[in-house]
Design goal:
With 262 residues, this protein is an alpha/beta fold. It is 26% helix and 24% strand. The protein has helices at 11-21, 38-43, 64-76, 90-96, 101-106, 122-132, 154-167; strands at residues 32-33, 48-49, 53-58, 84-89, 114-119, 140-146, 171-176, 187-193, 208-216, 223-230, 235-236, 243-244. The strands form 2 sheets. Strands 3, 4, 5, 6, 7, 8, 9, 10, 11 and 12 form a 10-stranded mixed β-sheet that branches. It has a two-stranded antiparallel sheet with strand order 1-2.
């Protein structure tokens, strides 16, 4: 894991070198970033769609760590050694805390794949994000923001989405202490920390997450899931569905990028 308080010069070249050092960049052959949770992935047609934008919201600041952990664990499930880019502002780092490499390793992830870029302000964050999503050598790009992000309007969001689509990059927008607003994201989620299952001797259990699908461009939303992380399998456990408000459609339709942005 590498950190910088300034935008990295030659970001594309650095990503390309990191990807090359670990072999060819790996992406899910089916076009989906799977969580390993069979029912969850099947309901979405295979997982989170590669080359699209996915938004993770944590309205309560206390759930920010859970939302960040979920985004990181999903992204680090990509096979191979291709780097994961994590972009955030210095202010977000002060509010939410620094990323702890030993903690990622304890959860079964490889912290050496994580390239952390901290920018001075949201304007530079958005500029770096536009650069990062166009680099095809990364496993995924996480863009973390805190509170309102007025620069990320529909025009800016569509520019990011087009860059991610053209490069085949999975873009995960981590929106902490924020309220969902219209966007061109493929999926939009609300993430809340869930009670973990205690281990033997009442030891703390694995991380658990409650997810609500707020919007899905290719199908109905309103579904809730409970996912537990299995660090040994490096996948989310195939637990039972916690409850559904609306049934998920068996067949998905992919709309053209930019359509139905609400």
């Amino acid at each position: 894991m590498r950190e910088s308080s300034q935008p990295l010069a030659g970001l594309r070249q650095r990503i390309a070198r990191l990807a090359a050092s670990g072999g060819p960049a790996s992406r899910p052959a089916t076009g989906w970033l799977a969580t390993g949770h069979d029912a969850f992935d099947a309901a979405l047609g295979g997982g989170l769609m590669v080359g699209r934008t996915h938004e993770f919201f944590a309205a309560d600041a206390l759930d920010g760590a859970s939302a960040a952990a979920f985004a990181a664990l999903v992204a680090l499930r990509t096979p191979g050694k291709a780097p994961l880019l994590w972009l955030r502002t210095v202010d977000a780092g002060r509010r939410t805390g620094h990323i702890y490499a030993p903690g990622i390793a304890e959860l079964g992830g490889d912290p050496d794949r994580l390239l952390l870029v901290e920018t001075a302000d949201p304007k530079m964050l958005l500029a770096c994000a536009n650069d990062a999503v166009r680099c095809a050598g990364s496993a995924a790009v996480i863009v973390e923001s805190w509170g309102k992000f007025p620069l990320l309007d529909l025009t800016a969001g569509r520019r990011l989405a087009l860059g991610a689509r053209d490069a085949g990059t999975t873009l995960l927008m981590l929106r902490l202490n924020a309220v969902p607003t219209p966007s061109v994201a493929e999926t939009r989620w609300n993430i809340v920390a869930a009670p973990s299952r205690a281990l033997e001797a009442n030891a703390p259990g694995a991380p658990a997450f409650d997810l609500e699908l707020l919007r899905w461009r290719s199908g109905p939303a309103g579904t809730r899931w409970r996912l537990d992380w299995d660090k040994d399998e490096q996948a989310f456990r195939n637990a039972a569905l916690s409850g559904a408000v609306l049934p998920l459609a068996a067949r998905r339709t992919v709309y053209p990028l930019g359509a139905e942005a609400a």
